[in-house]
Design brief:
Radius of gyration: 25 Å
Strand content: 15-25%
Order of helices and strands: HHHEHHEEEE
Distance between the termini: 51 Å
Length: 178
C-alpha cells in the first residue's frame, strides 16, 4: 500500500510541476512577443507623424486635387489644409473618397511595390457632425499598429468650424499578425 501512495503522490507532483513549466513558458513567450510587437509599432512613428504633417499642414499638389477624379488622378500630394496648418477643408476631406487605399498611399508618398504597409485615416468632429474615413480597413488580427492622433479644425462650406480628431493608423501587413 505504501508503494501505491508514493506513486500517486509522485504523479500528482509531477503533473503540477509540468503545468507550472508550461504556464511559465507561455507567459515568457507572450511577454517577449509583446515587447517585439511594440517595438515594431514604434518604428512606424516617424512615418505616421510625417503623414499627419502632410495631411494637416499642406493644401496638396495641385491645390485643387479634390475637384474631380481627373484632378485626383494627377495629385502628387494629398493635403487637407484650407491654407493654414490644422484648418481642414471639408471639400478636401470629401475628396478622400476619390482614392482607393493604394492610390491614397501613393499620393501621400507611401507607395511601396510590395504593398507591405497599411494606412487608415479617420477624421471625426468632437460634436459628431463630421466623420470621414479613408484607406484600408484595420485588420482585427494586426498587432503592430501605430496610431497617431492629431487635433484639427474642420471648416464647413457655410463657414462653421468644428474641432476634430484626426487619427492615422499605420501598420506593416506582414509583422505582428496572428
Amino acid at each position: 500500500m505504501d508503494d501505491a501512495v508514493f506513486s500517486i503522490d509522485f504523479a500528482g507532483a509531477y503533473t503540477v510541476l509540468a503545468l507550472l513549466l508550461v504556464c511559465t513558458f507561455f507567459t515568457a513567450t507572450n511577454t517577449i512577443s509583446a515587447r517585439y510587437t511594440a517595438g515594431y509599432a514604434d518604428e512606424l512613428r516617424p512615418l505616421a507623424e510625417r503623414l499627419g504633417d502632410i495631411l494637416l499642414k499642406t493644401p496638396g499638389e495641385p491645390e485643387d486635387w479634390y475637384v474631380g477624379p481627373a484632378n485626383a488622378a494627377n495629385a502628387s500630394i494629398v493635403g487637407l489644409s484650407e491654407g493654414h496648418p490644422n484648418l481642414l477643408s471639408s471639400y478636401k476631406m470629401d475628396g478622400l473618397y476619390l482614392f482607393n487605399a493604394s492610390r491614397l498611399k501613393a499620393a501621400l508618398g507611401m507607395a511601396d511595390a510590395s504593398e507591405s504597409y497599411g494606412l487608415r485615416i479617420e477624421i471625426d468632429s468632437l460634436d459628431g457632425a463630421v466623420s470621414r474615413t479613408a484607406g484600408y480597413p484595420l485588420p482585427p488580427d494586426t498587432k503592430d499598429v501605430y496610431k497617431a492622433c492629431r487635433i484639427a479644425t474642420v471648416k464647413e462650406p457655410d463657414g462653421t468650424c468644428r474641432d476634430a480628431h484626426v487619427i492615422i493608423y499605420v501598420w506593416r501587413k506582414d509583422v505582428g499578425a496572428t
